[in-house]
Amino acid sequence: MCNYSNIISGDVLFSSLGTTLKKAGSKDAQWKIDYTYQYEVAKMARLNGVKTAVLVSSANASANSSIFYSRMKGQLEDDIIKLGFDSTYILQPSVLDGDRKEKRAGEKMAIQVGHFFSKLGILRKYRPVPARKVAEKMIWFALAKNQEKVVYIKLDEIFKV
What we know:
The chain has helices at residues 21-24, 27-47, 68-82, 105-119, 131-143, and strands spanning 12-15, 52-56, 87-92, 96-97, 129-130, 150-154. It is of the alpha/beta class. The protein has a single domain (9-154), classed as NAD(P)-binding Rossmann-like Domain (Rossmann fold, 3-Layer(aba) Sandwich). Helix 2 (27-47) runs parallel beside helix 3.
Protein backbone atom coordinates (compact mmCIF):
# COMPACT_ATOMS: atom_id res chain seq x y z
CA MET A 1 0.00 0.00 0.00
CA CYS A 2 1.28 3.48 -0.81
CA ASN A 3 2.16 5.70 2.11
CA TYR A 4 -0.12 8.71 2.18
CA SER A 5 0.34 9.27 5.89
CA ASN A 6 1.57 12.83 5.40
CA ILE A 7 -1.81 13.91 3.98
CA ILE A 8 -4.11 12.01 6.37
CA SER A 9 -4.91 14.65 8.97
CA GLY A 10 -7.76 16.68 10.37
CA ASP A 11 -10.32 16.48 13.14
CA VAL A 12 -12.59 13.67 11.88
CA LEU A 13 -12.04 10.58 9.76
CA PHE A 14 -15.08 9.62 7.68
CA SER A 15 -14.76 6.04 6.46
CA SER A 16 -17.34 4.40 4.21
CA LEU A 17 -15.40 2.58 1.52
CA GLY A 18 -16.83 -0.69 0.29
CA THR A 19 -17.54 -2.87 -2.69
CA THR A 20 -19.39 -6.03 -3.58
CA LEU A 21 -17.89 -9.49 -3.85
CA LYS A 22 -18.94 -9.60 -7.49
CA LYS A 23 -17.23 -6.32 -8.33
CA ALA A 24 -14.10 -7.17 -6.31
CA GLY A 25 -13.81 -10.58 -7.96
CA SER A 26 -12.77 -12.54 -4.87
CA LYS A 27 -13.05 -12.52 -1.09
CA ASP A 28 -9.38 -11.57 -0.83
CA ALA A 29 -9.89 -8.57 -3.11
CA GLN A 30 -13.03 -7.50 -1.24
CA TRP A 31 -11.20 -7.82 2.09
CA LYS A 32 -8.44 -5.58 0.75
CA ILE A 33 -10.94 -2.87 -0.24
CA ASP A 34 -13.46 -3.14 2.59
CA TYR A 35 -11.03 -3.87 5.43
CA THR A 36 -7.37 -3.24 4.64
CA TYR A 37 -7.68 0.14 2.90
CA GLN A 38 -10.02 1.53 5.55
CA TYR A 39 -7.98 0.18 8.45
CA GLU A 40 -4.68 1.51 7.09
CA VAL A 41 -6.14 4.99 6.53
CA ALA A 42 -7.65 4.93 10.03
CA LYS A 43 -4.29 3.90 11.48
CA MET A 44 -2.55 6.78 9.69
CA ALA A 45 -5.24 9.21 10.82
CA ARG A 46 -4.88 8.16 14.44
CA LEU A 47 -1.09 8.40 14.31
CA ASN A 48 -1.50 11.93 12.93
CA GLY A 49 -3.73 13.02 15.80
CA VAL A 50 -7.22 12.68 14.29
CA LYS A 51 -9.50 12.44 17.32
CA THR A 52 -12.80 11.18 15.90
CA ALA A 53 -13.63 8.30 13.56
CA VAL A 54 -17.01 7.86 11.88
CA LEU A 55 -17.31 4.46 10.21
CA VAL A 56 -20.09 3.10 8.03
CA SER A 57 -20.21 -0.62 8.66
CA SER A 58 -23.15 -2.98 8.18
CA ALA A 59 -26.14 -4.38 10.01
CA ASN A 60 -25.25 -7.54 11.92
CA ALA A 61 -21.50 -6.95 11.64
CA SER A 62 -19.57 -9.24 13.98
CA ALA A 63 -16.02 -10.53 13.93
CA ASN A 64 -17.48 -13.88 15.07
CA SER A 65 -20.00 -14.19 12.24
CA SER A 66 -19.98 -17.23 9.97
CA ILE A 67 -20.97 -14.90 7.11
CA PHE A 68 -17.89 -13.50 5.34
CA TYR A 69 -19.22 -9.97 4.79
CA SER A 70 -20.51 -9.58 8.36
CA ARG A 71 -17.28 -11.02 9.76
CA MET A 72 -15.14 -8.64 7.66
CA LYS A 73 -17.14 -5.59 8.76
CA GLY A 74 -17.10 -6.73 12.39
CA GLN A 75 -13.34 -7.22 12.34
CA LEU A 76 -12.91 -3.72 10.89
CA GLU A 77 -15.08 -2.25 13.65
CA ASP A 78 -13.10 -4.04 16.36
CA ASP A 79 -9.72 -3.05 14.94
CA ILE A 80 -10.64 0.61 14.43
CA ILE A 81 -11.89 0.77 18.02
CA LYS A 82 -8.52 -0.63 19.17
CA LEU A 83 -6.76 2.31 17.49
CA GLY A 84 -8.01 4.45 20.38
CA PHE A 85 -9.72 7.44 18.79
CA ASP A 86 -11.18 9.80 21.38
CA SER A 87 -14.59 9.09 19.84
CA THR A 88 -15.60 6.34 17.43
CA TYR A 89 -19.05 6.29 15.83
CA ILE A 90 -20.05 3.12 14.00
CA LEU A 91 -23.14 3.27 11.82
CA GLN A 92 -24.63 -0.14 11.04
CA PRO A 93 -27.31 0.44 8.39
CA SER A 94 -29.23 -2.19 6.50
CA VAL A 95 -29.05 -2.10 2.71
CA LEU A 96 -28.28 1.37 1.32
CA ASP A 97 -30.80 2.92 -1.04
CA GLY A 98 -29.70 5.56 -3.51
CA ASP A 99 -28.62 6.34 -7.04
CA ARG A 100 -25.87 4.12 -8.39
CA LYS A 101 -24.13 4.18 -11.73
CA GLU A 102 -23.91 0.39 -11.78
CA LYS A 103 -26.82 -2.01 -11.91
CA ARG A 104 -27.18 -4.31 -8.92
CA ALA A 105 -30.20 -6.51 -9.55
CA GLY A 106 -30.02 -8.38 -6.23
CA GLU A 107 -29.64 -5.19 -4.24
CA LYS A 108 -32.49 -3.53 -6.13
CA MET A 109 -34.76 -6.46 -5.34
CA ALA A 110 -33.73 -6.40 -1.66
CA ILE A 111 -34.55 -2.68 -1.52
CA GLN A 112 -37.98 -3.21 -3.08
CA VAL A 113 -38.78 -6.14 -0.75
CA GLY A 114 -37.48 -4.15 2.23
CA HIS A 115 -39.73 -1.19 1.43
CA PHE A 116 -42.71 -3.50 0.92
CA PHE A 117 -42.27 -5.26 4.25
CA SER A 118 -41.59 -1.96 6.01
CA LYS A 119 -44.90 -0.54 4.76
CA LEU A 120 -46.62 -3.62 6.20
CA GLY A 121 -44.88 -2.99 9.53
CA ILE A 122 -42.85 -6.19 9.22
CA LEU A 123 -39.09 -6.13 9.82
CA ARG A 124 -39.26 -2.33 9.86
CA LYS A 125 -35.87 -1.93 11.51
CA TYR A 126 -34.27 -3.65 8.48
CA ARG A 127 -35.81 -1.23 6.00
CA PRO A 128 -33.49 0.21 3.34
CA VAL A 129 -31.70 3.38 4.38
CA PRO A 130 -31.23 6.26 1.95
CA ALA A 131 -27.49 6.79 1.49
CA ARG A 132 -28.13 10.52 1.95
CA LYS A 133 -29.56 9.83 5.44
CA VAL A 134 -26.43 7.87 6.40
CA ALA A 135 -24.23 10.76 5.20
CA GLU A 136 -26.31 13.23 7.25
CA LYS A 137 -25.92 11.09 10.37
CA MET A 138 -22.18 10.76 9.80
CA ILE A 139 -21.88 14.54 9.88
CA TRP A 140 -24.28 14.87 12.83
CA PHE A 141 -22.27 12.43 14.95
CA ALA A 142 -18.96 14.00 13.92
CA LEU A 143 -20.23 17.29 15.35
CA ALA A 144 -21.76 15.69 18.46
CA LYS A 145 -20.17 16.34 21.81
CA ASN A 146 -20.64 12.81 23.08
CA GLN A 147 -18.83 11.67 26.20
CA GLU A 148 -18.86 7.99 25.20
CA LYS A 149 -15.72 6.59 23.60
CA VAL A 150 -17.56 4.21 21.23
CA VAL A 151 -21.10 4.67 19.94
CA TYR A 152 -22.93 2.17 17.74
CA ILE A 153 -25.80 3.48 15.62
CA LYS A 154 -27.77 0.42 14.59
CA LEU A 155 -30.30 -0.10 11.82
CA ASP A 156 -33.36 2.03 12.44
CA GLU A 157 -31.52 4.27 14.94
CA ILE A 158 -30.10 5.97 11.85
CA PHE A 159 -33.58 7.37 11.18
CA LYS A 160 -33.75 8.89 14.66
CA VAL A 161 -31.92 11.70 16.47
